[in-house]
TrEMBL record:
Keywords: 4Fe-4S, ATP-binding, Cytoplasm, Iron, Iron-sulfur, Metal-binding, Nucleotide-binding. This is NUBP1 factor. GO terms for cellular component: cytosol; nucleus. One of its GO terms (molecular function) is ATP-dependent FeS chaperone activity. GO terms for biological process: iron-sulfur cluster assembly. Pfam families: ParA. Component of the cytosolic iron-sulfur (Fe/S) protein assembly (CIA) machinery. Required for maturation of extramitochondrial Fe-S proteins. The NUBP1-NUBP2 heterotetramer forms a Fe-S scaffold complex, mediating the de novo assembly of an Fe-S cluster and its transfer to target apoproteins. Implicated in the regulation of centrosome duplication. Negatively regulates cilium formation and structure.
Amino acid sequence: AEAAELRARLRAVRHTVLVLSGKGGVGKSTFSALLAHGLAADESRQVALLDIDICGPSIPKMMGLEGEQVHQSGSGWSPVYVEENLGVMSVGFLLSSPDDAVIWRGPKKNGLIKQFLRDVDWGEVDYLIVDTPPGTSDEHLSIVQYLSATHIDGAVIVTTPQEVSLQDVRKEINFCRKVKLPIIGVVENMSGFVCPKCKNESQIFPPTTGGAEKMCQNLNVSLLGKVPLDPQIGKSCDRGQSFLAEAPESPATLSYRNIIQRIQEYCEQHHFQEEKIM
């Protein structure tokens, strides 16, 4: 009955993409926010961003929605909209202050994730982007289990070039394989820094073991692209603005656009293959 309820609610969601990383601080929420902005740049496309990082919900801040409240209607919770075609849901909207700590055990977190999937009235959505916390535990198992009632196109895994990050990302790739979650590919974030004046590139986080490229070759996973560091990304996120719109000519924006294009192509191909099987 529970699976049928979730299926009924998410029937109108065409593509679901999870954004994962075993490591905290690699820019996963930033990537989720910019992926949602990039997809929603096409006004004919309806995009939803679900933040299931229960203890560290940063999506409301990044999307310029701090202080917003969730409204309830007869058809369920209404997402908070950035644009007409970009809706967001996060535990951050349920807290009385952005500084409130969420001190919950696993079952309560799992209950809220289920509620987000079952009770939010997303409407017809082309892309549902799910921003997850770091790690491979409760929240990840819950979202995969609940979404298995419908379908998940796959996961995008975010890393930075240094070995201390790649170590945790390998665990995340193994997690995906164990729970049979397709991997769309890996994004290497903070991959070098291009000086805006002299245009020279410096390696701020040296890839001592070959970075994401070598890891992807070893584990037979696609590398979707490398995003260079740009101080403007952090500034745009702090202001709740889209970096892609604020710095359209930045090397990081061009890299993001290529990655988003590849994710779209993968999802369309995945959808086409599923329809063929059916």
